[in-house]
Amino acid sequence: MHIANGIVDGPVSAIFIVVAVVGLAFCVWRAKLDLDDRLAPMAGLVAAFIFAVQMLNFQVLPGVSGHLLGGTLAVMLVGPYVGALCVATVLIVQCLLFADGGLTALGLNITNMALIGAAAAYLLVAGLLRVLPKNPAGLGATALIASVAGVVIASMGFVVEYALGGTTELSIGAIAATMAGVHTLIGIGEGLIAAITVVTVARVRPDLVYALRHFRKPVLAKAVLA
Amino acid sequence: MNNSLHLNRESPIHRLSPEVKIVAVLLFTIVVVVTPREEFAAFAGYAVLIAIVAALARVPAGWLLKRATIELPFVLLAVVLPFAGHGERVEWLGMSLSVEGLYGAWNIFAKGTLGVLASLLLAATTTTRDLIVGLDRLRCPDVITQIMTFMVRYLDVLADDARRMRIARLARGYDPRFLWQVKAFAVGIGALFLRSYERGERVYLAMLSRGYAGRMPVTVGAPAPAAEWVLSAALPVASAGIAVTALLA
């Protein structure tokens, strides 16, 4: 859910625009280390992929359909920096072309979904992959847990912003509980899809899963030694 | 590609350069958001301004209202506020409503709706390509505009890919309808990612072989003349005027 204009007051929105710009600048710098001049075409295609995936509705129950947000999926497949850039691009396009999310709330939305979401998901992915067994089930469990946690933590970003500059007086506890509840449900659906998707890609092209890059075995070197 | 919200009309607003429209909408939205919520007359004035721009751009009211439903989740939040709010309460139709909550609901509803309407007018009068050109002329970092260019360029291609895969699945008699049938859907997403990423690699190699060195060539077309900036400044200046008058009155 994208924050609209007027939910959070002006000064706090302005502060988070600065946070978003600084965060994205850092992501651009790190993403260029990952992809150098391939950055624009690759990140653009991944952003289009996230957007296309968001357009596919999936029936959860008769009459109720949901769609994927794609943040954790992008982070696992292309890494935290390129992933955050792609999600931020999707948010800017949705704001300007589809009027989804307020123009003055763009900084808030980018901070929550692109920066906090990607950072939380990637830290969890990096940690869990060390602990869990290195097989498809372990990879799937990692994607599931990171998705649920990533979505809920991103929604807590909104709670913090609301506590700082909310324009209405609702108890923060109630908002935090509602947001956590709704987003846990969203996160579980998101996590199931992300888990199966990542496992599918890992079976066919494990070299394309960024999260697995530390587990590559130097096949060639071994063959030469043997 | 054209976005689904673009209305291809011939109007003075459509002819304006994209960068002046982006700046005008941004400034207008900022004025709306910083206006104190008690200034009801000011919000009425903003609504009149939006109506004037919509009439100039020949965007029908029904079209705007139908697409403004995108902010419904936040309107629902606004409906809850008068019941859940604290403090002084008033009786209305036998219901006890919080005064603070009513103000809060009005605040979200008025500012949210005006913001969505302004954004919709921008999207209706500007093509996707022009929007990116506008952002580029406003000195938006070229990494972002380039990623956006690729994203917008390939969005239709990937959406068509996804649609073809879905039809192929349906044609073979599989139609995942419930959450416990999610596997086929997710495997399809995995295949879509592989296609997107491999297409990205092909596109990159094709660009390299045509001399790409990390930056797209500068697009033709002149930046907006001063007259357009003056013309488009009418919207933010008028809204700021309304805000100042309402505050002084």
Instruction: Report the radius of gyration of chain A as a whole number of Å.
Output: 18 Å
Largest interface: A-B, 73 and 89 residues
Along the chain, the helix and strand elements of chain B come as: HHHHHEEHHHHHH
Oligomer kind: heterodimer
- Give the distance, in angstroms, between the N- and C-terminal Cα atoms of chain B: 48 Å
Unreliable stretches of chain A: none
Uncertain runs of chain B are: none
Choose one word for the global shape of chain B: flat
Count of DSSP-assigned helices of chain B: 11
Succession of helices and strands of chain A = HHEEHHHHHH
For the residues shown, what is the average pLDDT of chain A? 80
User: How large a portion of the residues of chain A is in β-strands, by DSSP E?
Assistant: under 5%
Helix content of chain A: over 70%
Global shape of chain A: globular
Structural class of chain A: mainly alpha
Number of helices of chain A: 8
Distance between the termini of chain A: 55 Å
CATH class of chain A: Mainly Alpha
Secondary structure: helix percent of chain B: over 70%
What's the Cα radius of gyration of chain B? 23 Å
Q: What can you tell me about this protein's structure?
A:
- In chain A, 73% of the residues lie in helices and 3% in strands.
- Chain A has helices spanning 10-35, 39-55, 71-78, 80-98, 106-131, 136-165, 172-204, 219-225, and strands spanning 58-61, 64-66.
- In chain A, strands 1-2 form a two-stranded antiparallel ribbon.
- In chain A, a hairpin with a 2-residue loop joins strand 1 and strand 2.
- In chain A, helix 4 packs antiparallel against helix 5 (106-131).
- Chain A is globular and about 55 Å long.
- Chain A starts with 9 loop residues before the first helix and ends with a helix.
- The model of chain A has no long low-confidence stretch (mean pLDDT 80).
- Chain B is mainly α and 249 residues long.
- Chain B folds into two domains: 12-134 and 224-248, no CATH class; 142-209, no CATH class.
- In chain B, 70% of the residues lie in helices and 3% in strands.
- In chain B, strand 1 and strand 2 (95-98) form a beta hairpin.
- In chain B, helix 2 (18-34) packs antiparallel against helix 6 and helix 2 (18-34) packs across helix 7.
